[in-house]
Amino acid sequence: MTLRPHALEHAERTAHEWLATIGRHLGTQDLDFTFRVVRAWLHTVRDRLPVEGAAHLAAQLPEVLRGVFYDGWAPSRVPIRIAAGECTARFAQEARISTAEVPDVASTVSSGLGEMFSPGLLETAFAQMPDQLATLFRPARGVRPARGGEASAAGDEAGSEHVRTAGQTDDRLERLERDVRALTDAVSALASGLEHVPPPEPPGETAAKAARRAHQLLPSARTPE
């Protein structure tokens, strides 16, 4: 059977598009490097998934990367039990990077893949992995990055937290302004009661009135809402 050249070209072009997207997240245009770390990611995650989970993930890969995914796969042996340290070492060896680089590289590859996979696919896969390994591979902030016009869950949460923090700051400033105004009024009342020369009332009584007025003003600034 003779394959039409354009069929292979399309498969190769699609794979290049995926690698370019992931490379953009990694901050590199080196497709060889990107391919190595993506292959390491695919093989490491694949072997920690049950057969059904691996097949579900592979189904959305472009043809070339799907072939990479299944290369060397032994469905009768998965999921392979592997400690986090061994998993990191295996990833580093296949990607040809240091073990110290693995957490950032693995999570960044996940961020790039998250743009290409359907929403929720990666999180479904990670949910089938031990927590320690899933944490290693999850994108930064623990969620799939935003795709198109979608806002990521992390972005929504961060935005909500920012709004809450800003609102709390505004409330504190408003209370502080009220406290300052009340304190200013109290000091003015106290000064006004003492500045009359000669005083229209005995000095002791004038000072007492001023003090009482200041005392009346100050609690209002401390009254909780």
Describe the secondary-structure layout.
Blueprint: H1 5-26, H2 31-46, H3 51-58, H4 63-70, H5 84-95, H6 102-116, H7 121-126, H8 131-137, H9 153-194, H10 203-222
Structure, explained:
This protein is mostly helical. It has helices at 5-26, 31-46, 51-58, 63-70, 84-95, 102-116, 121-126, 131-137, 153-194, 203-222. α1 crosses α2. The radius of gyration is 33 Å and the shape is elongated. Mean pLDDT is 75; it is low at 142-169 and 220-225.
Number of helices: 10
Give the termini distance in whole angstroms: 81 Å
Helix content: 55-70%
**Strand composition percent:** under 5%
Largest sheet: none
Any low-confidence stretches, pLDDT <50, length ≥5? 142-169, 220-225
The value of Rg in angstroms is 33 Å
Principal-axes shape call: elongated
Mean pLDDT, as a whole number? 75
Strands, total number? 0
Order of helices and strands: HHHHHHHHHH
Class based on secondary structure composition and strand pairing: mainly alpha
Q: Quick gist of this model?
A:
The protein is 69% helix and 0% strand. It is mainly α and 225 residues long.
Entry keywords:
single chain, 225 residues, mainly alpha, 10 helices, 69% helix, 0% strand
